[in-house]
Amino acid sequence: MNQFFEFIIENYLLSALWVFILILIIFSILKEKMRKDLIESPKAVELINKEEAIPLDVRTKEEFERGHITGSLNISIADLKQKLFKGLEKDKKRPIIIISANGMSSTEIQKLLIANNFENTFILKDGINSWKNSNLPLISKEKNKQKNKNTKNKN
């Protein structure tokens, strides 16, 4: 134990840096856990079903067509940055759930929406990956094409 204290005293700058980094990590973890606007997939389902939340998918059109949440509105990040809200303007009071590929770009979009008077915004934690990992259904363009083809064949 004496060697430990000797090391700290002799390397006080290194020790202080280590403590500072540890405090930053703990602060970051606590900050994320206390966010009420960062929601998991089950909470998103609840908001969509009970409060008619709008799932706002900010992924590219190609990613969106590969699989998206039922009722999602697809508006690219570029369009949102240019304030092209494409139908969202009339729903500023409804809850909006921002969905990205992995949740990384959602905070920036949320700030933009809040700056434009959207009152009730949420971020789907870990993006569409969270939805997939929860085994929740996705709609894709390919599935819709196959479904339409099967319906035509039956008639």
Automatic annotation (TrEMBL):
The keyword Transmembrane applies. Keywords: Membrane, Transmembrane, Transmembrane helix. Pfam families: Rhodanese (PF00581). Residues 49-140 form the Rhodanese domain. The keyword Secreted does not apply. The chain crosses the membrane at residues 12-30. SMART domains: RHOD. This is Rhodanese domain-containing protein. It comes from Paraphotobacterium marinum.
